[in-house]
Amino acid sequence: MKILITGGAGFIGSAVIRHIIENTSDSVVNLDKLTYAGNLESLLEVSDSTRYVFEHIDICNRTELDRVFVEYKPDAVMHLAAESHVDRSIDGPAAFIETNIVGTYTLLEASRNYWLTLNEQQKNDFRFHHISTDEVYGDLEGTTDLFTETTSYDPSSPYSASKASSDHLVRAWLRTYGLPTVITNCSNNYGPYHFPEKLIPLIILNALEGKPLPIYGNGQQIRDWLYVEDHARALYLVVTKGKVGETYNIGGHNEKANIDVVKTICEILEELVPTNRFSREGGNSPGFESLITYVTDRPGHDIRYAIDASKIERELGWKPEETFESGLRKTVDWYLNNDSWCTRVQDGSYQRERLGG
After folding, report:
1. Catalytic residue among 41, 83, 134, 230
2. Alpha carbon 135 to chain centroid, angstroms
3. Domain that holds residue 184
4. Residue 102 needs a FRET pair 20 to 30 A away by CA distance; which of 138, 160, 284, 323 works?
């Protein structure tokens, strides 16, 4: 197969590309606008492959999308390009509307235009795989309820509302035009190459620098954590084996309160890194947990997310390989051993130097 992947320089997109290039014989065309969250250094280990090509493209640019479809003739589209940070969506929702809604619409139309040129067999084989989030469902009030593929949408933030809108567009293009689409909704991802504004990498890097570890509210917000490489395996399985018109929820079966996530990271760091890695005035350095700082909660903060991933396990045979403990240890270890990647992201040099800039 030749798979066109949007947002392939992002956290999840780069994991998907690395998985495909390293574990299959398929080819990848990576489309990415290279916003702040897009980092081609996350793809260095596969960038020299003859089965990989990068196109610096905004998915809102229809002319360039049409060119790419004509030039590369993909067998499938995996749409991961999105603005995805809740706090940023609260401060500036316009970019989320533009990329997540208008961009998805533009990509759907370019895909449909290309799909109409295919013969019947190619049309039947073609897939438009839209990668979304569990945040479209809102939050769960009960302690045992789970999001299923039929849970009603109830988004809380501009980010989740924009993703919910894009999900509806994808379903409409299947229903109205017959474009063969499939949707996945995932829980919180974590793992290597995660941009440091997100909780787990932020806590790891702040702790190593002796900076405060910020916790919203009381830290009791619960999330289901999914190791990004497990997610990449699931996404590839869906685009190659998933049934047209279906939705698959992908979760890690790892419900954790934010404060417990942070404390677990501190415990791993205490084991792997001497606490005198950072210094405080007045003598000996305290443990990493002493850096925990509670801050004002974000507006409209959802309390609990939890996914029922039984459908994808039952129908496609996927289940996560990593426990939260094993995945988190791998993640902490990766950040400890990739100082240069972290430094270049934190000081912005990854943006200034890419593409000869």
Report:
1. 134
2. 12
3. 2-195+225-256+303-324
4. 138
